[in-house]
Design goal:
alpha/beta; Rossmann fold; 2 domains; two-stranded parallel sheet; globular; binds guanosine-5'-triphosphate; binds magnesium ion
């Protein structure tokens, strides 16, 4: 057999490498020619790949499918908007998932209680001063207005502390279900990330939560049998919720808690407040989430989830592929592969977030949205894409302004403008329009909507409107092909 070969970059075991291995007698000139030849071959190969990609893309276009990307920062409302599409074009599929949303909603509730208790603990000693001192609250009226007069610390701090301690003790088994629920939702894999929800989820988790609960049984048992099996963890949490619903209500009604919210020492997410307000219903033993509950449930998206809907237009059914992306900073690199054959984008920007700086404490969330929107508008890959902007969470914006929160405090350039809803939304809209104008070589149109995507009736009307405008643009571009 041959003599021992010297180590080389060409694999010794791979027969293909062996075949293309340069002869050991290769001169410098020969080597130069070979490298040039190889570079040319690589270029040709890449050209072929690109042609194949274009052909695939043309085929896809001819097939008539529409690709729509939902983009925007974390918690902007993309997945909620996706649910509205689902509700409109595949309502029975939401019904099939309904029961499994319980896991998410329980998780949202348990996380909220944990957050309240942790905040109470860290403020325990200074609560008295904080809540009884001169009021610096920006809030007037609403549920916050009576927080001071009703402070439990007026005269009886010790008893208030003991109430909190007792609530903490009684709620501790429920709170400790937090990790197990998180684990269940992430499909048994804990992935750390910057997102606030702390749990990442891929599409298809609804089916997986049930699968996990059943110990990933491989046997094909009858569906009837599967349906009867409920996740023991979810059942256990349900029992605990039922047993402690009075304590949860008590905690939520504590003047101390209301006071901390008013002072912005305790910051609760919108979904926390929503489910705590509805705790009697959510904690009922036979609880089945309503559509409204599902729209308010919060679970962070990981990667990109594709949803396909058949959309009827002028009597013709067209498949729409909706891509719901994870908006957290660590997730944004996953978007790019979806850019080059997208037909349309809905960019979702939460305008209620002007007082927040979540992922990066130095960046106001509206600023983050504007920066992201700049990148989207200026991306060469997206220059022919139909562009729609949703200025979302207008309901929450309205409430914040009604509660006396001043925009100027967080966005100094707002200046002395009037702090009313109309002025504020138009001010934000103008900023987005400016970004678009400055990055608009193709003179494409930007369609803007003020939305609250948890509002089904209004959102479905807007979806119809967006569908028609995308379709008009789509027909025009198809005519040019
Ligand atoms: N009140 C109100 N809540 C909203 C609105 N839009 C979204 N939400 C809530 O905000 C939370 C976050 O919404 P998601 O749809 O999960 O956000 P996302 O953009 O998919 O977030 P990522 O998956 O992390 O990128 C959910 O609890 C929603 O119910 C809105 O217009 N009004
Ligand atoms: Mg999402």
């Amino acid at each position: 057999m041959p003599a021992m070969r010297t180590p080389s970059v060409y694999s010794q075991d791979d027969p293909l490498s062996e075949a293309i291995r340069p002869p050991e007698t290769e001169t410098d000139d020969e080597r130069q020619t070979r490298l040039e030849r190889e570079a040319e071959a690589k270029r040709v190969s890449e050209q072929i790949d690109e042609q194949l990609r274009i052909e695939r893309e043309n085929l896809r276009r001819k097939s008539g499918d529409v690709k729509l990307l939902l983009l925007g920062q974390a918690e902007s409302g993309k997945s909620t908007l996706q649910k509205q599409f689902q509700l409109m074009y595949r309502p029975h599929s939401l019904d099939q998932e309904r029961a499994s949303w319980r896991t998410v909603i329980y998780f949202n509730v348990v996380r909220s209680i944990k957050h309240i208790l942790n905040t109470l603990e860290s403020w325990d000693d200074s609560l008295e001063d904080e809540l009884d001192g001169p009021s610096g609250s920006q809030f007037v009226g609403g549920s916050n207005s009576n927080s001071r007069s009703a402070s439990p610390f007026q005269g009886n701090a010790a008893s208030s502390r003991s109430i909190i301690a007792s609530l903490r003790r009684r709620l501790s088994p429920l709170v400790s279900a937090d990790a197990a629920l998180a684990d269940r939702l992430s499909g048994g894999v804990t992935v750390s990330g910057s997102g606030k929800g702390g749990v990442f989820v891929r599409s298809g988790w609804q089916a997986r939560t049930i699968e996990n609960a059943l110990g990933r049984r491989r046997a094909r048992q009858s569906e009837e049998y599967d349906k009867k099996q409920d996740d023991p963890l979810v059942q256990e949490v349900s029992r605990m919720l039922e047993a402690t619903k009075d304590e949860i209500r008590e905690l939520w009604a504590l003047p101390t808690v209301k006071g901390l919210i008013a002072k912005r020492r305790l910051k609760l997410d919108e979904w926390s407040e929503f489910f705590l307000r509805h705790i009697t219903r959510v904690a009922a033993p036979d609880y089945l989430p309503s559509t409204d509950d599902i729209l308010h449930a919060r679970i962070q998206t990981m990667g990109v989830a594709e949803h396909v809907f058949d959309v009827n237009i002028h009597g013709k059914s067209v498949s729409w592929h909706l891509f719901d992306v994870g908006g957290a900073r660590g997730q944004r690199h996953t978007w790019v592969p979806y850019f080059d054959d997208a037909n349309a984008i809905i960019f979702v920007a939460p305008v209620s977030a002007f007082d927040q700086a979540k992922e990066d404490p130095r960046t106001n969330r509206i600023d983050d949205s504007l920066q992201l929107f700049t990148q989207i508008c200026s991306s060469p890959l997206l220059k022919n894409v139909h562009l729609v902007l949703f200025l979302n969470k207008t309901d929450l914006l309205r409430t914040k302004l009604e509660n006396g929160l001043r925009v100027q405090k967080y966005i100094t350039s707002f200046g002395e403008r009037s702090n009313d809803y109309e002025t504020v939304v138009q001010y934000f809209r103008a900023h987005f329009l400016q970004v678009h104008r400055r990055n608009n070589e193709n003179r494409r149109v930007l369609y803007t909507h003020f939305t609250s995507v948890v509002d089904t009736k209004a959102t479905q009307r807007i979806i119809g409107n967006v569908r028609d405008s995308i379709f008009r643009g789509y027909l025009q571009s198809a005519a040019l092909v």
